[in-house]
Task: structure prediction
Amino acid sequence: MINNAIKERKVDVTTDYHVNQFMPFNPVDKRTEARVTDLRTNSTFRVTKGAPHIIRSLASSDQELQARIDDQIIAMASRGFRTLGVAISYDNLTWEFVGACGARSWGS
Result:
């Protein structure tokens, strides 16, 4: 799914973006973050990924949206997937929840 989105947008992630700053996973915050420049437009944004409930809370206070995100995470977990929440910030103030990625647990 992620690879399809990259192909549809005709983006080369190896040459179109530059990671300016990377903060590794922090077990207290339960997320990682990067500041990235889009070299095609020279615009900078931040991305974060981590525990889905942390990213969900960071990106939205809308209870209905949070409930829908929780439902998706539970649905993925019921099929044996662990999930990561993903969010983006264009203004360095607010985060936008962009989705959750799932991967099979090693023990499954």
